[in-house]
Amino acid sequence: MEKFCSYIAIFLIVAFGNAIHATAGDPDILKDFLVLPSLDPSTITRQYFTFTGKTPALVTKATMKEFPALEGQGVSVSAIIYPPSGMNLPHVHPKASELLIVLLGSLEVGFVDTTNKLFTQTLQAPDMFIVPKGLVHFQVNTKTDSPSIALGVFGSANAGTVSLPSTVFGSGISAEILAKAFKTDEETISKLIQANN
């Protein structure tokens, strides 16, 4: 009986471990691609699979929101143009890791792990840098006379982006609470709140 209980315990541990592992990441799809329920699959053409980034911007994202053909594919991308001295402020992608590929110029990149250790690197085209999922990270073009261009490739069709300055100072958290958290005065925090609203 004792041996039987040991087998049951091992089975439950393996089954539970596999159940946790199986839910990590985007779900696999059983078709070649997914189509929005509002669309008739017979009307899909090559245009459905093409994203042109219609609006000029510092960051052109292609996630499921902007490019529905990515649903179920487990990938998304953003093209980022950094003007001279430009930066991508500290932010987090809670649902995916990011592979940053420098296409033009150079960037200083970095992330902070859960022990508060900062990892930074200066990249030159065509260097790459991986940012683990959910960690605070940033990029800075340290050149004052030339732009930089990079691609951010994500391991999810919807990586999510949480910008730390606007999330913290534009969320409605009171200046009193934030002043205590940042060990500063309410006047300083009020200025930051005003700048992010």
UniProtKB/TrEMBL annotation:
It holds the Pfam family Cupin_1. Keywords: Apoplast, Disulfide bond, Glycoprotein, Manganese, Metal-binding, Secreted, Signal. Transmembrane segments: none annotated. Residues 49-190 form the Cupin type-1 domain. It comes from the Eukaryota. The keyword Manganese applies. Residues 1-25 form the signal peptide. InterPro entries: Cupin_1 (IPR006045), Germin (IPR001929), Germin_Mn-BS (IPR019780), RmlC-like_jellyroll (IPR014710), RmlC_Cupin_sf (IPR011051). It is found in: Secreted, Extracellular space, Apoplast. SUPFAM superfamilies: RmlC-like cupins. Belongs to the germin family. This is Germin-like protein.
